[in-house]
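Class prep. Protein, please:
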Amino acid sequence: MAQQGECSDAIKAVDDLAQPVPDLAFTRDGLEPFLQSARFTYLIGNVYKSCKVPDKALSSFKQAAEKSSFGDEAWAWKASQQLPDFDHGSAKQKLQSILERVKKSDSSDSPGGWWFYNVGMLDACSGNIQQAAREFREALLSPDILMTYHLTRLAMSGNNP
């Protein structure tokens, strides 16, 4: 909606995301992990930015940039780029360090699709496009959990804002 210029509807939708929807039980107690993720917070920031609500956009980007769990790292990186004090050099170093740590600390003998998707996102953010493509392919060849197939297809098509 924000991309179509329908900002009042987009902002209302974003502001009401956490509100339970009658007849959709998962909206009462199942959305919180998604709503608190760096990905969601970053995407919400983009809605506010597109709709020229800079204070809310900045707040969302700051919140997303502070996330540091494995599934949040790439989105935290993207959000940090929207902050006024963004230092590309040090942020790129931090991203490389995270990527190296994640690849070294794989705790399973055979990582799953979620791992490959997130490492692919980190590689894509680092500019390692060919490596990211290999990891995205592995994500699609692994069992689908946590919407891995959908998110991987978005990443591969360039539809990740």
In short: The chain has a mean pLDDT of 90. Residues 88-104 form the longest helix (17 residues).
